[in-house]
Specification:
Length: 180
């Protein structure tokens, strides 16, 4: 199967499972799930037919494990801008986590910390390499070190999504280390 087609499907899923389900007439449940059959039918009705095999290949083949399928339903693992409750328990984070960004945002981050912007949570990476890849999507990456252990000790709650992304409501500037 054409890799470009799989990327297009993944982006289509991101748009409609994370940000704009109503655009194709899909309603996510409170936890972000929708029936696979409903999603495939809606995609076809809106001019973007996806086969069950293509959907399965995108979900299983995505190196970031952005989507989950359970009991005939599908959802995005995290990154929603629409209201959903992923039902992830609070867990103790490692001592440090990482956040990939680009230089043009560093000034604001130094002042305000990391904010979720249009999403529900700030996304943090478990390792520097992943954060570097995340930052590189927008240009030359800048990797920030987050004092997650100290944040947790100070009462901040962390959650980990099914694909290993760490989620937190915000990261105040005092918990960030910037590259020199």
């Amino acid at each position: 199967m054409d890799e470009r087609r799989l990327i297009r499907i993944s982006k289509y899923l991101a748009r409609h499972l994370r940000h704009d389900p109503q655009r194709i007439g899909v309603t996510l449940d409170a936890n972000g799930w929708v029936s696979v059959d409903v999603l495939l039918r809606a995609a076809a009705e809106h001019g973007f037919p996806i086969t069950a095999d293509e959907l399965w290949r995108v979900v299983e083949g995505n190196d970031k494990r952005r989507y989950a399928i359970e009991d005939g339903r599908i959802r995005a693992s995290q990154g929603h801008s629409v209201p959903v409750e992923l039902g992830l328990p609070a867990v103790e984070p490692p001592e440090v986590l990482f956040h990939g960004t680009v230089a043009r945002y560093v000034g604001a981050i130094k002042q305000e910390g990391l904010r979720p912007m249009s999403r529900h949570h700030v996304h943090l990476s478990p390792d520097r390499e992943t954060a570097t890849r995340v930052g590189a999507r927008r240009g030359v990456p800048v990797v920030l070190v987050v004092g997650a252990g100290a944040m947790h000790a100070d009462g901040h709650e962390f959650r980990r999504s099914a694909n290993g992304v760490w989620l937190v409501d915000l990261v105040p500037p005092g918990y960030l280390r910037f590259p020199s």
